[in-house]
Amino acid sequence: MSTIHSKRAARFVADAEKTSWHDATFWSVREKRDKMAQQLPEWEDLREHASQIKKHTITHLADYLEQFSNSLESRGVKVHWAKDAAEFNETVLSILQSHNVTKMVKSKSMLTEECEMNPYLEQHGIDVVETDLGERIIQLLHQKPSHIVMPA
Q1: Does residue 120 sit within a domain?
Q2: Domain count along the chain
């Protein structure tokens, strides 16, 4: 099965100039990371500790989400749960419509990107404006954002 991403990746890899640029960029980032790691004697211990925290958190994610939700609700925040992107988008639209919102200014969010919230809201008459200049330019070009994803 082929996805849009895999098709675009195949076109990208076929371009030797882009592939060389990508490899050089990635290698440069890796060299900087390795240089910083070598300056910190406890680097591996910290990585292992972080890995254990991540595993614990993922294993107990439902508990932490419930705890977080309860904490917010105790302070008067209304928490909404959604089983998927469709329910998420419908919930957001319902809230906006209940307040007669026709224009929304928002910051970038990977959740809203993954759920394709902006196009969904726009299809329902909500004008969505990104606050980050780079994201706004991408939005005006009707493109999806792309970033090199790697650990800091």
Answers
A1: yes
A2: 2
**If you average pLDDT over every residue of the chain, what do you get?**
90
Residue 39 sits in the same domain as residue 16: yes
Indicate the burial class of 138 (C-beta count within 10 angstroms; 0-12, 13-18, 19 or more): middle
Tell me: do 56 and 86 sit in the same domain. no
Measured CA to CA, the distance from residue 103 to residue 73 in angstroms comes to: 27
Q: Are 17 and 25 in contact (CB under 8 A)?
A: no
CA neighbor of 93 nearest in space, from 80, 75, 83: 80
Q: Which domain holds residue 102?
A: 80-140
- Residue type at 82 in one-letter notation: A
Using the predicted structure, report yes or no on whether residue 1 has a pLDDT greater than 50. no
- Tens of pLDDT, residues 6-39: 888 888 889 899 889 888 988 998 899 899 999 9
Note whether residue 74 is domain-resident.
no
Residue type, 70: N
Query: What is d(CA 14, CA 25) in angstroms, rounded to the nearest whole number?
Result: 17
Based on the domain organization, do 84 and 45 belong to the same domain?
no
Largest interatomic CA distance in the chain = 57
User: Is 0.85 surpassed by the pTM of this model?
Assistant: no
